[in-house]
Amino acid sequence: MYDIIVISSGHAKKVQGAVGIINEVEEARLIVDQLAVELRDRGIKVHTFHDDTSTTQSQNLDTIVKKHNSYDRDLDVSVHFNAFQKTEKPMGTEVLYKSQKDLAGKVAAAIASVGFINRGAKKRDDLAFLNGTKEPAILIEVCFVDSQADVNVYEEHFDTICAKIADVLGDEEKDDVEVA
After folding, report:
1. What is the pTM of this model?
2. Is the separation of the CB atoms in 139 and 96 below 8 Å?
3. pLDDT tens for residues 110-140?
4. Which residues of 144-158 are buried (b: 16+ CB within 10 A; e: fewer)?
5. Cα 138 to the center of its chain, rounded Å
6. How many CA atoms lie within 13 A of 40 on its CB side?
7. pLDDT above 70 for 174
8. Are 142 and 95 within 8 A, CB to CB?
9. CA pair distance 104, 98, nearest whole angstrom
């Protein structure tokens, strides 16, 4: 279990991420805020951050990493949504990591349990967030903004998704979530 977690939404108000059926920046902010409520309900101290000032991608990444590193914490989490191409088909969820393979796999499995395809944990050593934060970190790709099937599952199970992520981070489902 983590005592202190910093969670941020990916991208920024002025540096938009993926836009499809839903908007990545808007939805990531909703997930961050609800996930913080869920984690606090489990006794975990949470700091949240949404970038409202950056005007370039580089500035945005620097701002997010700097904010995370300004806190004393046990874990860094960045919330994003994927995009590929507009489709009716389900595309799924995945969690990116540099050194937190087991945690990433558990979070991906927890999110997938509501009805997403589990794309699993994906190692990435080329992302500014994962490389720049000084504590263990994961980057959650909740689902695809341009997949109607994913958006349907996401909208129907929003609260459950947040609760399932919080269960993993709060170590409440460690024996109930199978890692793909």
Report:
1. 0.94
2. yes
3. 999 999 999 999 999 999 999 999 999 999 9
4. bbbbbbbbebbeebb
5. 7
6. 11
7. no
8. no
9. 10
Structure tokens at 129: 């967030």
Amino acid at 15: V
Distances in Å between the Cα of 129 and the Cα atoms of 80, 95, 140, 153, 173 are 12, 13, 11, 27, 26
Residue 116, both tokens: 């997403």
- Tell me the CA distances in angstroms from 18 to 37, 72, 74, 153, 175, one per residue in order: 25, 30, 29, 18, 34
64-95 pLDDT, tens per residue? 999 999 999 999 999 999 999 999 999 999 99
pLDDT in tens, 3-36: 999 999 999 999 999 999 999 999 999 999 999 9
CA-based torsion, 111, 172, 156, 31: positive or negative:
negative
The alpha helices in 4-142, defined as continuous H runs, are 24-41, 57-69, 101-112, 128-132
Measured distance CA(168)–CA(109) in Å, rounded: 10
- CB contact set of 55 (below 8 Å; sequence gap of 6+): 14, 15
Q: List, in order of start, the domains of the chain with CATH numbers.
A: 4-169 (3.40.630.40)
